[in-house]
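Sharing a chain and its predicted structure for anyone who wants a worked example. Both blocks are below, sequence first, tokens second.
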Amino acid sequence: MRIALWFISFCLICQISTFAQVNNKNRVVILTDIEADPDDTQSLVRLLLYSNQIDIKGIVATTSCWQQHKIAPESIERVLRAYGEVQPNLLKHETGFPKPEALITLIKTGLPVYGMLGVGNGKDSEGSDWIIKVLEEKDERPLWISVWGGANTLAQSLHKIKKTRSAKEAKRLISKLRVYTISDQDDSGIWIRNNFPDLFYIVTPGDYYANATWAGINSFIKGIDNTSISNGWIAQHIQQNHGPLGAEYPDVAYGVEGDTPAFLSLIPNGLNEPEHPEWGSWGGRYALYKPDFSKTKKGSSIVTIAPETRAIWTNVTDNYTPYIPKEYGRTIRRDTVSFKGNKVTLWRWRDDFQNDFAARMDWSVMPYEKANHPPVPVLAHSEQLMVKSGERFSLDASKSTDPDGDSLSYLWFHYPEESSYKMDIDPGAANLHIVNLKAPEVQKKETIHFILKLSDKGIPSLSRYKRVIVTVVP
């Protein structure tokens, strides 16, 4: 009897644990103008390799300024069927990859019309109704809308919610939405922001893409190694000899994976905190303010840049000096070149997320023992510490592990743009698993964000992170 009760309790614990793991995934609905540019297909291939860690709730075929009168849901299905051929092998590396049949049922369509022509009474679509349906589920997690093209399907959902729900219910539903849009690719984006001033919205407004943070994913940066976005790297690590999903990854036409930043921050890697865009992530770093784009010149599309009437999450600057390897002595040192700009907030992580993509593409064809898997950072203390002004303290990740038994490298650094305390803090030998520090002398309470980047020496090298927020009080 005691054994039976223990077994029942164990099963319940497992069920609760499994539910907790699933429930902690970030929910997302994708809006994609797939076939307007090859980069939507590229981004979809990458997204599916994280479909066990991101809860995909819908993939909606939409229009944009680049593709105004047609949608291509069949292209989404083609990529999903290729994913289905490698899904059994992906499961050998991590659990939770959904069956392709389940994902195919999530393909929805927006109206094949441009922008605000698809917003208004009687202009509902399968996609706009689906967003509302997902929002009304008994699930308190935020719902991210990852907009790779035009936003009019989302605009129609919001229009219908406002027209058909009580003010209280509309406010509740809209409060659950989180939007990251790859600039404005139709005229509905500014309409959404003007009419729903409380909606969480990440965007570089207008169509002048050179200003956008997301462009850091494919910008050629003078002074760094750009190999990981080169056509040769893509062919070797993604397209060729990586099964049917890799074969679906098209060549670059305009810019590689311009839509991927709209979901990079949702990957649980220890650095990403989607509810805090100001903290920085693989998807870039953003601040909440009312920007002035009145002097921004028009780009190459037809989308008008209009004055913003409310605060949005948008461009912010990082000052970044990379660490580079040394052949002798301490294994790393600060480079002699520094970089400043909003794109820096994203491309500073580019080699890390490209290596991660390459490793997961390996998972689609390789057995577990032949592929690389990310290390597991473990702190010997809380992720939030409080110390007194001038007090000594330590950051300790000595219990970190690697599932493949690979050797590990550590890098601790202060991220001043995320911190209230802006002065540089030198950790000394930043590549130790334990660093000993002295809190700065302060006159008021200050916060300091320290990042641990833990990397293995597998091929490709993979990185995971821990963020430690130290509060220093007088």
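Comments welcome. The chain has two domains: 22-315, 373-474.
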